[in-house]
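Hi R.,

Here's the chain you asked about this morning:
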Amino acid sequence: MHNDEINLLSQDGEMYYIPHLFNSRESVMFYNALFHGIQWKQQKIKMFGRILDMPRLTAWYGDEGKKYSYSNVENIPLPWTETLIEIKEKVEQQAEEAFNSVLINFYRDGFDSMGWHKDDEKELGLNPVIASVSFGGTRKFKIKHVNQRELKADIELEDGSLLLMRGATQHYWSHSIPKTMAKVEPRINLTFRNIN
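And here is the predicted structure, written out as tokens:
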């Protein structure tokens, strides 16, 4: 990270927000390429004893053999595309970190969401670095400390932005993308990570 980036967390981790890693032209280009070029899936999850559609479309890409499981769903990586490699290289340069996989989420409207969770699956290792890129509509990203509930914040994730989480963040902080009744544009989110 660059020395002028400010840690958004007061304790127990590191979180940095870079609002314009990709300019407007790049963001439109990448959004369109991902929208048309990614093999989106409507996955199922089990909640409260019922099988439901996950409230967003997803895709998993990465190096061969880098499987990832969450919410009782196992993801086998599809091979990197040229578009994903181009985005990944710019993110790696900013984060000063190499990534071997990416989870891609497509939020079609305000009803698509992500519940409270931590990215702490065993495949990610002890203190994972997660680099989250957004293209398209702005969505609210909520965070809260798992032990001190008064520690919480909202971050507006804008088109072309990067949110970088590292250190002990996934041990102590949960995050979510809540549903909203407000009119929001579709959003594509890429969370680059390393699978051990």
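One quick note: The chain has three helices and 14 strands.

Cheers,
M.
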